[in-house]
Design a protein that fits this description.
By secondary structure, the protein is of the alpha+beta class. The chain has 3 domains: about 10-145; about 150-165 and about 245-320, no CATH class; about 175-220. The protein is about 50% helix and about 20% strand. The chain has 7 helices and 12 strands. It has helices spanning about 10-30, 55-80, 85-110, 120-145, 175-195, 200-220, 305-320, and strands at about 40-45, 50-55, 150, 165-170, 225-230, 235-240, 245-250, 255-260, 270-275, 275-280, 285-290, 295-300. Strands 3-8-11-12-10-9 form a 6-stranded mixed beta sheet, covered by helices on one side. Strands 4-5-6-7 form a 4-stranded antiparallel beta sheet. The chain has a two-stranded antiparallel ribbon with strand order 1-2. The relative contact order is 0.11.
């Protein structure tokens, strides 16, 4: 996979927005900061009236750190070959950076008067700036990303009546850790809700913590999976829970192969669904690709993708001779 050359305009589109956010934040602090009182309105209600007060500087320094991280990620992205994945990372970083920086700038502007208010259009502007900062780098990285070639693999050279099977296990320790954090957070949230108000009852505690616990279990299901190719077709099963994630009968498969999978192609990591099909993505690298009759595909990132495709190819060839 050859990385396409990125021109000067594309490079500026990647690094310019995040750099502009950091510069705007610093300039605003230098110009308006000396005139800001030690105690300013830091939060506003739905009606735009201030309902919380404090120092403006903790929010500033936090916003500056986020802006510098986004700018650093943009510089690193220029030298990475997997530009689709970095486009996804930079999209999130720039959206957050642009939004929080604009929020602090807006806070500094409205606090120049004794009775500050925060009209709703300021909130709309904050989100709009975040989007405007995030979109150009994403487009520039995706447009200059190299095409992803699919590789066909010769079937295993075995007799047509031979029993062929292939199995691999793949997963992510990050998913396992995140699942544990979410489950523990859900339990703590439920306990805190029940302790804070005896009148809240079990129902409120269950709602406050139940969603986090369910999300944690869902992530843990994806933490370790087993991919199997045999006469039944392709199966992807959670190793810890034995919950089936993907089942594709052999007679639904038209062809197979492998490709260099990028999380950016699928919008991130995990169990992904798009117009192309369904994918289990835990990292950049080889992925077993199964193309279905009538369109669509199933993709699993696994180190031994080429051998899995060869085994599946042998099964498909045997089916053709049946």
């Amino acid at each position: 996979m050859t990385t396409r050359t990125m021109g000067t305009g594309a490079r500026l589109a990647v690094v310019g927005p995040s750099a502009a956010v950091a510069v705007a934040l610093v300039v605003t602090a230098l110009v308006l900061g000396p005139a800001l009182p030690a105690r300013v309105a830091t939060h506003f209600g739905a009606d735009g009236v201030a309902d919380a007060w404090g120092s403006p500087w903790p929010f500033f320094w936090g916003s500056l750190v986020v802006a510098l991280i986004a700018a650093g990620l943009a510089v690193v992205a220029l030298g990475r070959s997997d530009r689709r994945t970095w486009a996804t990372l930079l999209l999130v970083a720039n959206l957050l950076s642009g939004s929080v920086a604009t929020a602090w700038i807006a806070e500094a502007i409205v606090n120049r008067v004794d009775d500050p208010t925060f009209p709703v259009w300021w909130a709309v502007l904050t989100l709009a700036v975040g989007v405007a900062v995030a979109v150009p780098p994403t487009i520039a990285l995706v447009r200059t990303a190299a095409p992803v070639p699919a590789h066909d693999v010769p079937p295993l050279d075995v007799p047509t009546d031979a029993r062929v099977a292939w199995r691999a296990r793949v997963g992510s320790p990050w998913f396992a850790g995140l699942g544990v954090v979410l489950v523990v957070g859900g339990v703590v949230a439920a306990w805190a809700t029940a302790s804070a108000s005896a009148s809240a009852g079990i129902g409120a505690a269950a709602v406050s913590g139940g969603l986090l616990v369910l999300a944690g279990i869902a992530v843990a299901v994806l933490a370790r999976v087993e991919c199997t190719v045999d006469r039944r077709g392709l199966r992807l099963t959670s190793t810890w829970t034995r919950i089936p994630l993907v089942r594709v009968p052999l007679d639904r498969i038209e062809s197979c192969g492998w490709e260099q999978v990028s999380p950016g192609q699928w919008g991130g990591w995990g169990y992904r669904i798009s117009g192309r099909g369904v994918a289990y993505v835990v990292r950049s690298g080889p992925g077993l690709v199964v193309r279905l009759r009538g369109g669509g595909a199933r993709v699993v990132t696994v180190a031994d993708a080429e051998r899995g495709a060869a085994a599946l190819g042998a099964l498909l060839r045997a089916r053709g001779h049946a």
